[in-house]
Amino acid sequence: MSAPVFLAEASGSSEGGAGGGLSGFPVGSLYVLDGAEGRHAGVVQRRAVGEDIDVVDGEGLRLRCTIEAVAGPGVSLRVREVVQEPAPDVVVTLVQALAKGDRDEMAIEAATEVGADAVVPWQAERSIVVWRGDRAAKSRARWLATVRAATKQARRARLPRVDLAIDTRGLVDRTRQVVEAGGAVIVLHEEALVPLAEVPLPSPGDPAAASSHAPEVLVVVGPEGGISEREVEALTEAGARTARLGPHVLRTSTAGPVAIAMLVQRLGRWDGADEGR
Questions:
Q1: What's the pLDDT tens digit per position in 107-155?
Q2: I need a surface site. Which of 52, 106, 201, 233 has the fewest CB within 10 A?
């Protein structure tokens, strides 16, 4: 069974640690998991001495550790192994239309678990839910919490980015930018003729480069009422391609995760060669 994952907070002390985040904790050093994550491990989950857990920084660095002591919300961990997982050579981003009944949150939760690198809230024309003012801040905070929890559930070392909400005009602009940079934008549409499995994907970038420099694939999912013809036209004029998932019409909460799973499989992330990618 894989070790549970905890996200490093802006704290933690060590014997032999040199600071600078998790990079300051070499093999053999002592890391103290405290704060909210330490309380969750020591008090809520009642983790015990001798158990293995991983601590990640959300940017690809993973400490594989063994618990040496538990003192309430402070869990002392001995570092057994330090793993730096590479940045994705193709960034896969889910553009999820805002949807009622928490269906958008269900979508980003599952998409994070299967491998999305980023999620973008989209205020589509037919979105019933509207993010404005205080509601926008609270709703994005829920998305952040959802992605964080899903990252831990999936034992990931990289925390997907949650962008600010955009409207259709903003999505059209971003589509142009992604395509001009060598990426691809795929609009899921039930009337599309080309299946997602046959849509050309961008060539991988340099695995050693920062993920922001890697080509990006945007997967656009509409709300319950679907993407309007005007939106499809504007996005395709900006360089997007339409694609269908299969013979069935999926809910907005399901389409994105299924598409992300298909894409990460095509990119080789599930072949066992790139653990943690």
A1: 999 999 999 999 999 999 999 888 888 888 899 999 999 999 999 999 9
A2: 233
For residue 227, give the 3-state DSSP assignment.
coil
Residues 26 and 78 in one domain: yes
| Least confidently predicted of 14-28, 151-165, 173-187 | 14-28
Range of 152's domain?
Answer: 91-266
Contacts for 169-177: CB closer than 8 Å, 24+ residues apart: 171/95, 171/120, 171/122, 171/220, 171/235, 172/234, 172/235, 172/238, 173/238, 174/120, 174/218, 175/218, 175/235, 175/238, 175/239, 175/240, 176/238, 176/239
The number of domains in the chain is 2
Instruction: Tell me what pLDDT residue 207 has.
Output: 54
Shared domain for 158 and 192, answered yes or no, is yes
Q: Residues 62, 79: contact at Cβ < 8 Å?
A: no
Contacts of 135 (CB under 8 A, 6+ apart): none
- Comparing 28-32, 160-164, 181-185, 200-204, the range with the smallest average pLDDT is 200-204
CA distances (Å), origin 189, targets 33, 97, 244, 262, 274 = 45, 13, 5, 16, 31
Average per-residue pLDDT in the chain? 89
Cβ neighbour number for residue 98 with a 10 Å cutoff: 20
Of 35, 68, 84, which closes a domain? 84
Compute and round to an integer the Cα radius of gyration of the chain. 20
Which one of 34, 49, 84 terminates a domain? 84
In angstroms, what CA-CA distances link 165 with 5, 96, 127, 139?
28, 10, 13, 10
Q: Is 191 exposed, middle or buried (0-12, 13-18, 19+ CB in 10 A)?
A: exposed
